[in-house]
Amino acid sequence: MKGEAGSMRQEKPKQEERIWGSMKKAAFILGSGLLLLVAFSNSVLGQLQRFWDASGCFQQAQWERLLSTFEGKEWILYIIATILVPGLFFWSFNGLLLVADTARKPNFISRYRIQVGQNEPVDAMKLRQSIRTVLFNQFMISVPMVVFLYPIIKVRGDPCRQELPTFHWFLLELAIFTLINEVLFYYSHRLLHHPTLYKKIHKKHHEWTAPIGVISLYAHPIEHVASNMLPVVLGPILMGSHLSSIAVWFSLALICTTVSHCGYHLPFLPSPEFHDYHHLRFNQCYGVLGLLDHLHGTDTMFKQTKAYERHRLLLGFTPLSESIPDPPKKMD
Q1: Which residues form the Fatty acid hydroxylase domain (predicted)?
Q2: Do residues 321 and 310 make contact, with C-beta atoms less than 8 angstroms apart?
Q3: What CA–CA distance (Å, rounded) separates 143 from 328?
Q4: Which residue from 234, 303, 313, 318 puts its CA 20 to 30 A from 63's CA?
C-alpha cells in the first residue's frame, strides 16, 4: 500500500508536467499559426484582396444605404445580422438534411452515411422532442444572450460603424475567432465529460450516438451557454468586430457545427468523421479542429481507425466509405 501511495505521489507531478507541457505547445502552435497567416497575407491573399477591393465600393455603398435607412435604429440591423441571418442559414441547411433523414430522399444520399444502418429513417418521436429543445435553446437562450451582448460589443467598438473591414482584417478576425472557439470548446467540452457533469448535463446531447444536423444545438441549457455560445461570441467581443464580420462568423459557426453532426460525409464539405466518432465512442475527439486533441492525446484511438483515414475533404462523388471501407467484422 505504501509503495502504491508513493508511486501515485510521483505520478501526479509528472501528469501536471505533461498537461503544462501540452498547454505550452498549444500556445506555441497557435501563435505560430497567426504569424504564418500574416506572412502569407501578401502572396495568395493579395490576389483575393484585389478582388475584394474591386467590389468594395459597391459593398460600402450598400452598407451606407442600410445605415441611412436604419439611422437611429441600428439595433434592428444588429438583430437582423446576428439572429435572423444565421438562423436562416441554420434552418435552411437543416431543412434539407431533415428531408434526407426522414424521407431518405434523394436516394443516393444514403451512400454517404457515416454510421451505416443508423437513422434510416430517423426516429420521428425522438426527432420532434429534439427539435423542441433546439428551438428552446435558440429563442429562450441564444436570442436573449445575443441581445444582451449588444451594449457590451459597443464598448469594444461600434459594430455598425460606417467603414467596412478590409479583406486582410476580416480574414485575421476569422482566424482568431476559430482559434478562440477551438480552445474554449475543447476545454469546456472535456470538462462536461467529467462523470458528475456528464450525468447531469452533457448526457442529453449524447443521447444521439449517431448524430444528425439539427441536434448540433440539442443540449442542456448550461451546456448551450458554456460550449455552444461562449466560444463563438467571445471572439467578436474581444476584437470589437464590425457587424458584417459577426454575421459571417455566426453563420459559419452554425453551418460548421451542423456539418459536424449531420451524419453524412458529403462531397466538397468539411469532414464530419472526427465529431461523429466522438458521438460513437464518447471519450475521443473533444475539439473542433483536432489540434488540442492531438496535443492532449485524446485522438489516439481515432487515429487507429478507418474513420481517421476518411477524415479529409471529399473532392469526388465516390463515397469514402466505399473507397476506404471498414474492415470486415470478426465472427465469434
Answers
A1: 175-298
A2: yes
A3: 47
A4: 234
Q: Grid coordinates standing for 136?
A: 428552446
Q: What is the pLDDT of residues 271-305, one digit of tens each?
A: 999 999 999 999 999 999 999 999 999 999 999 99
> What is the DSSP track for 267-323?
TTS---HHHHHHHHHSSS--SSSSHHHHHHTTTTTGGGSHHHHT-S---SSS-HHHH
Which grid coordinates belong to 225?
451557454
pTM recorded for the entire structure? 0.84
Q: Is 124 exposed, middle or buried (0-12, 13-18, 19+ CB in 10 A)?
A: exposed
Q: Cα dist. 36→33, 45, 181, 196, 246 in Å?
A: 5, 12, 19, 41, 24
Q: What would the pLDDT profile of 67-86 be if each residue is shown by its tens digit?
A: 999 999 999 999 999 999 99
Q: Which amino acid is at 282?
A: F
CA distance 215 to 328: 30
Q: What are the cell numbers at 106?
A: 434523394
CA-CA distances (angstroms) from residue 8 to 3, 5, 12, 91, 195? 9, 5, 6, 51, 21
Number of residues written out for the chain: 332
The structural domains of the chain, with segments of one domain joined by +, span 72-323
Q: Find residue 264's DSSP bridge partners.
A: 113
Q: Phi-psi region for residue 290, left (φ > 0), alpha (ψ -120 to 50) or beta?
A: left
